Structure prediction request, 367 residues.
Amino acid sequence: MMNKDAPRGTRTGFTTGACSAAAARAAVLGLVTGEVPATVECLLPNGDVVTFAVQDGRVDVSAGVAHAMVIKDAGDDPDCTDKAHLTVDVRLLPHKAGQVVLTGGFGVGRVTMPGLGLEVGGPAINPVPRRNIEANVRAAGHSLLDEVGLEVCISVPQGVEMAKKTLNARLGILDGISILGTTGIVKPYSTAAYRASVVQGVQVAGTLGHGVVVLTTGGRTEKFVMEELPSLPQAAFVQMGDFLRYALGAAVKAGIEKVVIGGMVGKLTKIAQGETITHAGRAEVDTGLLAELAAGVGAAPDVCEAIRGNETARYAGERMDALGLGAAFHTALAQRVIQTLRARYPDQFELQVLVCDFDGRKIAEAS
Prediction:
């Protein structure tokens, strides 16, 4: 459970993925024991075990079906999916022993365009939550899975309405929200408290005597850059989230000599186009910029037009990878990031940009 007494603006919450995993675990326990529990312990992707309250639990053992729901609490993050009812219906699949089949019901978005790293036509359930839901289902239902398979259908009754407040439709995710979350925990990224923690992190890095701060957009990019720069102490690394402007302002103030930015194609494109607050809701990705970079490294005009016409930066990266131009393209993007930031912060610090793919592997760098 979350700390209800945390200072205002700092209370963490849980992702749609974590709540789905908890509801799935509760429903499966209902099939195993004959009763859906009122609370359930759920393993999060970050390794924490958290207790969730379960609503609307019911099971029909003879029919081989169970139902459970967990209400999302986003903590102090002003998240449009706060209070979403993450609902799971589980049913036995008699001839599919050992299989866990994950499906999306009402209110879970459908993927209709490439560039998201998800199967076109399938539900918008991201890879980390997908693995986490399955892990919890297998932990709760291992005795059943020896004999049968389990279908786990996730739905969100308010998902269609909630999705209208997101950029999902522009990204080709239709009819609902995405099931997200790489750690299971929602930090209040959008609050003054998180901005303040970024500034504080940069200030601490400035006291270390290395003259370097490494700014990353999240946990995956931080892990990647830590492996690339093993000689730096942990305190030199700051997860800036979307708050590049505040991080760089603090770096200038602290007199830091070198700023390293670690990122993936989406956030780096936002920075290259001049956005210093890179939140998904703030501005669209400039796919024209990506098309220009693609042309500059030798992509054919039809590829450049396809990149310009797609809504995601990821699509551009994947198209260029498929043509064997991925390294050149991502290097050009990193160079454009430096060019853009140089114009805004002339001669105030040395810059290096490290680019990784969605699995955290290095693709390119520029300095």
Summary: Residues 13-186 form a domain with the CbiD-like fold (CATH 3.30.2110.10). The chain has a mean pLDDT of 92.
